[in-house]
Structure formats: structure tokens, C-alpha cells
């Protein structure tokens, strides 16, 4: 029964446990690439300071287990493995994103699933759980809208917690009731703030989401229960975290699986390791580079929605964390080098004199969009205006950034990114990772990347 009196979590639990979740060709291709891309991001991120700090903390707590912390040789309990792998996967902000939930979905879903993988679990066995988790994230994103994110909630840590919990519940084959209670418990763990961006807390919030997903699914399996009205109650998650609209929530739940949210909305793979809200302007500036001498640039004016600009508060970054959320730095790199790579961040490219000069000449102009419910409004693209020292003005716009479903990365670029992220210790393994759905036993694949020689 799906009338207005049925709690939203009951409906979600029924869907997660009972829906026949089969990927069509489009969603299968996107899922295949997203999982491999996330594995690459995890392996690239294990060397980041925040990942090392997180591993040190888990070791200090003396938590043992057999779940793999990828790329490290460390083993720990499932919840802690999910935490560490998700933190590493988000440390570089190189992992995928989606709209309408405005989350990084795979970096919370996949580590939670890998932590709960048991002997005999095939690669294909992850498909339905992933689709369940993505569906919960995307439909709740439709319901809460960008008002949730705009209010300051880090949706990867909020909606992502619920979606990752749904994914683990499906993998563990919890029934509808237990799945609903797992998500009810997850609501009590679903928190994170965009004001933390630029610090260690940002990737740690992704780690907390994956950890909570494992813990809440296990708690529900053991019989722990929450309030099934915790999502749609007047004092519940939707009402308290912004964007509450009971009819919009019901409408979103009516669309569960019709079609699959992954097929409908797609998923974006990042071409550059920084916040995706810089990517529209980076994309459009690439088109202005031909024949352009950076030293001839007198002024750069960047126009973007205010909700995006609010996530990018750092003009001249002082460190890597701030560089991830610096629009002037990202755009200077696009103009000077036509790219932004992990090697650029490792060499602290934001300190290069040529880049610093362009940052100082950059002016950011947020505007309030006419349709704030849209993450990217085709009628209001980002706009870059570059003024040269001879008075010539170059203008360019971009609606969908490189990597978005509407402007996807080519297959060879996806593989090149994966090759770079897993090098040098796992060089040559990209094709194996991309073929993860065909793995007869995921633990064998996990073992290959758990402790690279």
C-alpha cells in the first residue's frame, strides 16, 4: 500500500528489498565505469595525509578484522574498512558525482559494499545493491532539491548515508522491514556540513557515511529498529534539513525504479581532481586557449550560480585542501596549462608565479539563478569573460561540464585516468578493474589491490 499514510521509509525498504534491479545497457556501462573509477580514486588517495591520519586512528583503537583497506595491506573490521576506503576515495575530490542528489555516490556506496563482501560474492552481485543505493540517493535528492545542499548540508554525507545503507541492506538480503529500519537508523547518522570543505573533515564525512551504512545494516539485521516515520515526520529528516515538501517526496517515491535513476540522471566522472563546480568554467576556458598568451590576460571575470560559488570560498589557496575549492586557481590552470592533474597538486601549482598572477586578476561574480532547483540550468550557463591587455574581450559559456552525463568523458580518457590513478604499483591492471562485473569472486579482485607489491 503506497498511499499518503505509508511511511516513506517503508516504501523505500520495500523497494530496496524486493525490486527487480537489473541494469539496462546504459546504466550497466555507467556503473561499470563508475566503480572502476572509484577504485582508482581510492588507490590514488591512500597516500594523502587525511588517509594516513584516518588509518593511524583506526590502528590506535586496536580494531582488528579481515576487511581490506585497499592499497595498504591493512585489514580491519568491515565498518572501519568502509570508513578508510571512502575517506581515501574522497581525499582528492576526484570521484564521481550525480544530480539531483548533488552527491558523490560511488565513494560511499562502493566502500560499504566491499567491506561487506563475502567469499563467493561475484562482481555481478554488486549491481543490484549499487542500483538500490543510487536510487535512494537520487530520489531523495529530487525530493529535497538543492535547498538541502544550499542550506549547508553535505549531501554526500546525508543522502549518501541513506543510499549506502540501502545498498548494504540489499547485499545482505535484508527483507523490506529490516531494510526500512536500517535506513531509519541511518537517519540518526546522516550528517555533514559544507562549511567543512577545504579541511580533512570533507573526505572524513564521506568515510563516516560509508561506516554508518555498514553499522546500521548490521544493527538492523540484529533486530535494532528506528522510527519508520523518521524521514517524513514533521520533526524528521526531510523537514529539518531543508527542502521539505511532502508532495514532492511522494512524487519522487512514485518514480522509484521507473526508470532506474541511474539511467534517468546518469553519473559524472571527473576529468580533474577538484570540486566539480569549477568544471563548467574550466571546460569553457579550454575553448579560449588557442593562440592565447597567459601573460596577455589583464582580467578574468567568472559568472556562476551563487549556490555553486558558496562552495568555492578560497580565492588564493594556501594548501591542497583549499585548492580543491578555489575557482580562480582552477581557471588559471585551465588557461595556462589546459589541464589540472594530480601532479599539479603534488607540486603545489597554486604557488606558481604565473598562476598567482592570474588568480590576482580574477573576479568571481555569483548570480542567483532563475530556477534554483536545477543544478545546471541550460538557460543560465556559467560564463567566462577574459579581457586582454590590448582591450580585446573573449567570452565563452558552458552549460554542462566535461564529464557530466550530457558531456561525458570518452572511454579512452576514463581508462587513462584509471591508469594514472593506479600507477605505478598496479600498472596494467586497469582492464581488470574495468571488467569487475565479470569477476567470479570479488574477494580475489580485492586481494589484488589490497596490498600491491
UniProtKB/TrEMBL annotation:
Pfam families: MmgE_PrpD_C, MmgE_PrpD_N
InterPro entries referenced in this protein's UniProt entry, alphabetically: MmgE/PrpD_sf, MmgE/PrpD_sf_1, MmgE/PrpD_sf_2, MmgE_PrpD, MmgE_PrpD_C, MmgE_PrpD_N
Domain MmgE/PrpD N-terminal: 11-244
Parts of the chain that traverse the membrane: none
GO MF: lyase activity
Residue ranges constituting the MmgE/PrpD C-terminal domain according to the UniProt record: 272-427
UniProt family annotation: Belongs to the PrpD family.
Protein name according to UniProt: MmgE/PrpD family protein
Organism of origin: Ruegeria sp. PrR005
Amino acid at each position: 500500500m503506497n498511499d499518503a499514510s505509508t511511511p516513506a521509509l517503508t516504501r523505500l525498504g520495500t523497494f530496496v528489498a524486493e525490486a527487480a534491479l537489473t541494469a539496462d545497457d546504459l546504466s550497466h556501462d555507467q556503473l561499470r565505469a563508475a566503480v572502476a573509477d572509484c577504485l582508482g580514486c581510492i588507490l590514488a588517495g591512500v597516500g594523502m595525509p587525511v588517509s594516513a591520519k584516518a588509518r593511524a586512528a583506526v590502528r590506535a583503537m586496536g580494531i582488528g578484522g579481515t576487511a581490506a583497506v585497499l592499497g595498504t595491506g591493512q585489514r580491519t573490521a568491515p565498518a572501519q574498512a568502509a570508513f578508510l576506503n571512502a575517506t581515501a576515495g574522497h581525499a582528492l575530490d576526484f570521484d564521481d558525482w550525480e544530480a539531483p542528489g548533488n552527491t558523490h555516490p560511488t565513494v560511499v556506496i562502493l566502500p560499504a559494499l566491499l567491506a561487506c563482501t563475502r567469499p563467493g560474492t561475484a562482481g555481478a552481485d554488486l549491481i543490484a545493491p549499487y542500483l538500490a543505493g543510487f536510487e535512494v540517493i537520487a530520489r531523495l535528492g529530487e525530493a529535497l532539491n538543492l535547498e538541502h545542499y544550499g542550506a549547508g548540508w553535505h549531501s554526500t554525507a546525508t543522502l549518501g548515508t541513506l543510499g549506502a545503507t540501502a545498498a548494504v541492506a540489499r547485499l545482505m538480503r535484508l527483507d523490506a522491514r529490516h531494510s526500512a529500519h536500517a535506513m531509519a537508523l541511518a537517519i540518526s547518522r546522516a550528517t555533514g556540513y559544507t562549511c567543512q570543505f577545504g579541511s580533512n573533515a570533507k573526505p572524513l564525512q564521506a568515510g563516516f557515511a560509508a561506516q554508518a551504512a555498514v553499522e546500521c545494516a548490521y544493527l538492523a539485521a540484529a533486530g535494532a529498529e528506528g522510527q519508520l516515520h523518521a524521514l517524513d515526520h514533521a520533526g524528521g529528516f526531510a523537514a529539518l534539513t531543508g527542502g521539505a515538501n511532502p508532495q514532492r517526496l511522494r512524487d519522487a517515491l512514485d518514480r522509484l525504479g521507473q526508470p532506474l535513476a541511474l539511467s534517468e540522471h546518469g553519473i559524472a566522472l571527473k576529468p580533474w581532481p577538484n570540486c566539480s563546480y569549477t568544471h563548467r568554467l574550466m571546460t569553457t576556458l579550454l575553448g579560449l586557449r588557442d593562440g592565447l598568451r597567459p601573460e596577455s590576460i589583464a582580467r578574468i571575470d567568472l559568472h556562476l550560480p551563487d549556490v555553486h560559488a558558496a562552495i568555492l570560498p578560497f580565492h588564493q589557496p594556501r594548501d591542497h585542501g583549499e585548492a580543491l575549492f578555489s575557482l580562480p586557481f582552477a581557471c588559471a590552470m585551465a588557461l595556462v596549462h589546459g589541464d589540472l592533474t594530480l601532479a599539479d597538486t603534488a607540486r603545489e601549482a597554486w604557488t606558481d608565479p604565473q598562476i598567482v598572477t592570474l588568480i590576482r586578476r580574477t573576479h568571481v561574480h555569483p548570480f542567483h539563478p532563475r530556477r534554483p532547483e536545477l543544478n545546471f540550468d541550460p538557460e543560465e550557463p556559467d560564463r567566462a569573460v577574459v579581457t586582454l591587455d590590448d582591450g580585446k574581450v573573449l567570452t565563452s559559456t558552458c552549460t554542462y561540464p566535461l564529464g557530466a552525463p550530457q558531456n561525458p568523458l570518452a572511454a579512452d580518457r576514463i581508462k587513462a585516468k584509471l591508469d594514472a590513478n593506479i600507477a605505478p604499483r598496479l600498472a596494467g591492471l586497469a582492464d581488470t578493474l574495468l571488467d569487475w562485473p565479470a569477476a567470479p569472486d570479488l574477494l580475489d579482485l580485492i586481494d589484488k589491490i589490497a596490498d600491491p607489491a
